[in-house]
Amino acid sequence: MTIGERIKAYRKEKGLSQEQMAEALNVSRQAITKWESGKGLPDIENLIVLSRTFGVSLDEMVGEEASFQEKIGDQKRKRINALTIAMFVFWAAALVKIVLGCIGIGQGAGSHEILMDFVQAGVLVLIGFFCRYLKQ
Questions:
Q1: Distance, CA of 107 to CA of 65 (rounded, Å)
Q2: Angstrom distance (rounded) from CA 36 to CA 102
Q3: Cα distance between residue 85 and residue 81, in whole Å
Q4: Domain residue spans in the chain?
Q5: Which of 78, 95, 100, 101 allows an S-S link to 105, with CB 3.0 to 4.6 Å?
């Protein structure tokens, strides 16, 4: 349940119209409509007055939004985990390529060029991950 849904439910529970609640908070009826529809949020002062009016704590008023912050944290962790895995795969592949080169497998005229191409491609992939991470 969102803040808006809670405000609407608590308002109806108290038997108040949007106009009555707007008068009590010294805001417009349109502000109440915005809050209840989720198109806007009350400022902290109005949240405090609302929580007192409805007899609930601020935590109860914004409970869902608190879990929204947790969801954002989960998304960041997932992105960081994906980036860590990508970096691990890249460096593991680079290490395998270096080891194979050291023991003589894959050596030839262009083996160093191939290794550099591989490293450059890996760096580009990592830059892509960072750009995507920063965008989100």
A1: 58
A2: 67
A3: 6
A4: 3-61, 72-135
A5: 100
d(CA 60, CA 66): 10
Over the stretch 52-74, which tens digit does the pLDDT of each residue have?
988 988 888 877 554 545 655 66
What is the distance between the alpha carbons of residues 111 and 116, in angstroms, rounded to a whole number?
Answer: 9
Q: Report residue 86 as tokens.
A: 């990508």
Show the tokens assigned to 37.
Answer: 């529809």
Q: What sign has the CA pseudo-torsion 120, 124, 125, 126? A: positive
Contacts from 55-59 at CB under 8 Å and sequence distance 24+?
56/10
List C-alpha distances in Å: 98 to 69, 94, 111, 112, 128. Answer: 43, 6, 10, 10, 24
Q: DSSP label at 15?
A: T
CATH topology for 3-61? 434 Repressor (Amino-terminal Domain) (1.10.260)
Chain segment 87-106, per-residue pLDDT in tens: 777 777 777 777 766 666 55
3-state secondary structure of 73: helix
Of the candidates 25, 79, 73, the one whose C-alpha atom is nearest the C-alpha of residue 47 is: 25
Predicted TM-score of the model (pTM): 0.47
Give the whole-angstrom CA distance, residue 36 versus residue 18: 10
